[in-house]
Write a structure and sequence with these properties.
5 helices
């Protein structure tokens, strides 16, 4: 039997309780007009923001630094009048990306999940990558930051036009790798139709 394909022992079972095994994490997308809109379910705000912090020329504006409820990223510095305009728009329920042309992502959290809007496909891939990493970290009982994010190219190979969905029930942990089953987000309850592999030795991600 090839290394990494040994049968699971109890210590290698995913660390999901019954509810988590059946719960679906997902990112759904809707492409209409200039902006891509969608919602992430099964994640908190902070790891999504952290996955987008690599752009050195960007500035962030947050609703609350200690308890993120919304975050907006703008390319370049945010002047005082722009800051005030963004906060005013969000307070009245508007999307600041509708008027702030330098804004490239806006995220807001409510009881349904984390809604987002962006004008860049790479940002959607980064959000999906953060969701995949959080899912893998829970299955492996590891801190999220201990795992690398999947590259945008790898995520693009498994995400459908309308997003992707993950379930603990379709995630398998082996000594050498993690196998994450992926289904389309717009078909609730559908069986996984493709998978993503996390190599536990090298830390790299690849499709099956």
């Amino acid at each position: 039997m090839p290394p990494g394909n040994e049968p699971l022992s109890p210590s290698h079972l995913p660390d999901f309780g019954l509810a988590a095994m059946l719960t679906t994490r997902s990112i759904t997308t809707n492409r209409s007009g200039r902006l891509i809109r969608g919602i992430v379910r099964g994640s908190v705000m902070r790891p999504l923001v952290q996955s987008l912090e690599a752009s050195p020329s960007a500035s962030w504006l947050h609703g609350d630094a200690t308890n993120l409820k919304w975050s907006c990223r703008v390319q370049g510095p945010i002047e005082h009048r722009d800051r005030a305009a963004i906060r005013t728009a969000i307070a009245r329920g508007d999307d600041p990306l509708e008027f702030e042309i330098r804004g490239d992502v806006f995220l807001t959290e409510d009881d349904h999940g984390i809604s987002f809007s962006s004008d860049q496909e790479d940002i959607v891939l980064s959000l999906a990558g953060a969701l995949l990493r959080s899912h893998a970290a829970e299955a492996l009982r590891q801190p999220t930051e201990s795992l690398a994010l999947p590259t945008p190219g790898v995520v693009a190979a498994v995400i459908a036009k309308t997003g992707l969905a993950l379930r603990g029930l379709e995630t398998e942990v082996f000594p050498g790798f993690l196998d994450i089953g992926i289904s389309d987000a717009d078909h609730e309850g559908a069986a996984a139709s493709r998978s993503l592999i996390l190599d536990r030795v090298t830390g790299s991600w690849h499709t099956d």
